[in-house]
Structure formats: C-alpha cells, structure tokens
Amino acid sequence: MLAKRIIPCLDVTGGRVVKGVNFVELRDAGDPVEIAARYNDQGADELTFLDITATSDGRDVILHIIEAVASQVFIPLTVGGGVRVVDDVRRLLNAGADKVSFNSAAVANPQVIRDASDKYGAQCIVVAIDAKRRQGEDLAARGEGWDVYTHGGRKNTGLDAVAWARQMAEFGAGEILLTSMDRDGTKSGFDLALTRAVSDAIPVPVIASGGVGNLQHLVDGVQQGGADAVLAASIFHYGEYTVGQAKALMAQAGVPVRV
Amino acid sequence: MAQRTVAVVDYGMGNLRSVSQAVMHVAAGEGVEVIVTQRPEDVRAAERVVLPGQGAMRDCMRELADSGLKAAVLEAAASKPLMGVCVGMQMLLDHSEEQDTPGLGLIPGRVKRFALEGQTQPDGSRYKVPQMGWNQVWQSAGARGVHPMWAGVPDGAWFYFVHSYFADPSDVNHTAGQTEYGQRFTCAVARDNIFATQFHPEKSAEQGLALYRNFLHWTP
To answer: Which GO terms describe its molecular function (chain A) (predicted)?
Structure first.
C-alpha cells in the first residue's frame, strides 16, 4: 500500500537552515547538506527546501545547495520560495530538484501553473498555499473559511483557500502544500478542519503543514485531516524527535509508512 | 583493456541529472565510467545502457526517433544489459493507452492508465492519480527464481513512484516485480538482457542505489 510521507522542511537563507515562529524571529538550525543527509539516514520520505531569502542577489545560493544535496541524498527534493516563472522551474530541476513549489507567483499569474505543468509535467509542480482562518470583517462579510495569504503571510489575497486549491489542481498542480498560518510555529497541531476541507476537495495529494509540536499531530494530520503527507520543521531540527520515532508512532496508529 | 562505460541515453526528454547522479554515485570506485550522451556511437560503444524517461510517452517516443538514438537503443536492447526507468520502461512495451502511442515492442504487452478515481484505499483515504510516493515491491519468482537484479534487495522493499500509467505485459514471465495500488500491477519487467522499472531507483534511497549497483555487475 502507498505509504503516507513524512517530509522534513528546511527553511534556507544565506546558505543556512533557519526556523521562524509565525514567519518571524529566525533561529539558525544548521548546514543544509548535513541536515539533509541526517534526515535521509533517519528515513525521511522526501525533503522540502524553502528559500526564504528576501533579496534576489541571494537566489543562486539555493541552486548550489540543491546541487550539493542532490549529489549525496537520493530521495525526492522539493524547492520553493521566490519561484516566479517557468524558467525558474527549469533551473531548479537542472540543479537536482524533483519538484518546484509556487506560492505568491501563482496568485499573481495563475497561468504560470498551466505553463509549467504543460512543460514539465504535473508531477513536479507543487502549489504552496498559506491559509488563515477568516476573522473580523472578513468573517462577517464572507462567512467561515480560510483566506489565501501571500508575500510571506503579509498580504490577504481575499481568495478562498479551498476554491483556490481546486483551481490550482485543475490548472495542473500535482500536489498542494497547505500551511495553516494560524498554527505555524505554535506547536498546537495542524488545522485539521482546513486540511480535511482541502483534501476532500481535490484529486491530487495534499501535504499538511504548520503547527506540528508532537508526533501525535502527524498521526492526526493523516487520520483526521486526510493528508497524504505531513511536513514539519522544528520538531526535527532541534532533535526533539527523529523521523524514525515519528514513523514508529504512525505505524502503531495504523498509518501505512515506509520503514 | 577498454574502460567499462555505462551510457545514460539523453534523447532530450527532461532532466537526467538525478538518474546520472545515482549511477555515478554507485559507479565511483568501481572503475566504471558513466556518460550522459546524445550520440548513438556512445550508446553503441557502452558496455551497459540506461534508458530514462519522463513526461508523456508520445513525446518520449517522438524525441527518441528524432534524436537519431532509437536504432542504437534497439541494438543495445538486443545485445547488452539495458535498464529502463519510468517512461523508459513503458516505451519497451508494444503500446500505451496514453495518447494511443505505439512503443518499441521489446516486451509484448500494453501500458494502461489507473482507473481508480473515486475509489478508497484500505485505510479509508481516497486513491489519487498519479500514484505519488513510496510503495512496496514484491519480487516475482519465475522458473529460475527471482531476477538477479534483486540481489540483496529484500522482498517488499519500498521504492518511490510517480506515475499514472503502468505496464501490463502479456507474458507473465516478463514480470519481475509487482506493486499494489488499487490492483496488483507490474512495476518491473525483464526479458533476456533487459530489466526496467516503473519506480525511480534514483529517488529510492539505499534500495534504489542497490539496484543500480546490481546493474553494473549484472551478466544476463
């Protein structure tokens, strides 16, 4: 049976892995190649690199990081952050990425997802969605649900997250990386209602992200949220848990995992 | 003595970096040279040939023909160890349902699409197509036991898949491995000096590297 995947996420800037809380307060967590190799040894199913470099002059650093990791670690690698045009996909795939993740650029120009998917195949195009539960005026005006945010979580697009996920799957996204901004960095678990709503709405896999604080949260993301894969950063970076421990608990809970 | 070489066939379909990196990784220290090549003469001169493939099968077949590499690949398939991967496996069969595309006809049978939309997996979650992720491979035991390419790889080992289509060989003896996804399907085919997988050994960590290592030593 197809295994549910565990995906450690490495936020990268200036050639180092860092981790923020609610998209701010960055802490250094180590060297990307070392961390990637350690996760591979622990049994990670895939790795996601998020380039959070704000300026364009630091962009090529991620290509070198991916080249270095891809020559030593033989599991699927996804890269996101600052991906804007179809040519960015080509450069990242050539560097050794297997999938490329769009976020803000897909909102600004949805056609880029069609073009990238037509050219390189849906299997390598991921759309990342940063979603936040509607509150205040938005809630009063449009009812319960989640809005899509861009620009590192600073800008509300006014798009409904479930409808947006559906549209992106239709446009050729092969996978949706779904982050709850309310939960990100809080260690209080995934937003399971959000995960379930998106997973039930689309035919392509959903990666749940944002809020993992313990291993039971990973089980809940799959069993209650309906996620095909679960992504976490800080619980693995700081050595609180290993990927192996996560898989052992998931297997015990009846979730199919690769061991 | 001539240098032993493995040719990774580059007929213009997508990114060969991950396949060549994995083959180079296992070839390092074994005195085997790995070349990624667009030249038919390199394919003819190589001791072994890897045929990757990604994207749509029709595009792959067209590019293989237009690149001038098809004849050299067919010669390799008739004479020396050849390993196909993903669409590089699908092309070995007679025909694919994907855009009604004829294949190379080296393994009798057809390539079919998963018809799983709307069905649920044993754990209650719904099947998604493409199948994306890690699944177990069960080695097929023929009259002479399991295929030598599986040496050192445990039965039921996990490999990484990304595909919507799968091979359905008409001769059961050409099935070298199977996987369960809604149905049991053939995920590895073999015939004489040909071995090919639907999954991606280059993305399947240690077990995948073991397959490429076995390929360097395989004497059909």
So the answer is: lyase activity
Per-residue tokens: A60: 């090529």
- With CA atoms as reference, report the closest residue to B125 among A28, A170, A92, A200: A200
CA distances from A60 to A56, B4, B53, B97 (A): 8, 36, 28, 41
Of A88, A130, A147, A184, which is the active-site residue?
Answer: A130
Compute the distance between CA of residue B199 and CA of residue B208 in angstroms, rounded to an integer: 9
DSSP string spanning A44-60?
A: -S-EEEEE---SGGGTH
In chain B, residues 166-185 whose CB comes closer than 8 Å to chain A: 180-181
The confidence score (pLDDT) of residue B125 equals: 78
Residue A39: how many other CB atoms lie within 10 Å: 23
Catalytically active residues of B are 86, 200, 202
């050219």: which residue's tokens?
A119
Rounded CA-CA distance B80/B219 in Å is 9
Query: How far, in Å, CA of A52 to CA of A50, rounded?
Result: 6
- Give CA–CA dist A174/B30, Å, rounded: 38
Read off the amino acid at residue A17.
V
CB within 8 Å: B162 and A123: yes
CA distance B157 to chain A (A): 9
- Say whether pLDDT at A60 is over 90: no
- CA–CA dist B72, B78 (Å, integer): 10
Q: Encoding tokens for residue B5?
A: 């070489």
**Beta strand A125-133 with A146-150: parallel, antiparallel or unpaired?**
antiparallel
Residue with tokens 């070995």: B92
Bridge-partner residues for A5, per DSSP?
A: A229
Beta bridge partners of B46: none
Mean pLDDT score, A86-104: 93
Q: What is the mean pLDDT of chain A?
A: 91
Segment holding A43, helix H or strand E = none
Residue A19: per-residue pLDDT: 65
Torsion over CA: A67, A73, A76, A79 (sign): negative
CB-nearest to A1 from B132, B162, B180 is B180
What pTM value is reported for the model? 0.93
ipTM, 2 decimals? 0.91
Task: Give the closest residue to B165 by CA, choosing from B134, B143, B198.
Answer: B198
Instruction: Tell me how far apart the alpha carbons of residues B27 and B17 are, in angstroms, rounded to a whole number.
Output: 15
Give the DSSP H/E element, type plus range, for residue B48. strand B48-51
Q: At CA B138, angle to CA B137 and CA B144, rounded to 5?
A: 130
Contact A174 B132 (CB under 8 A): yes
Chain B residue with CA closest to A98: the answer is: B18
**Nearest-angstrom CA–CA distance, B76 and B95:** 20
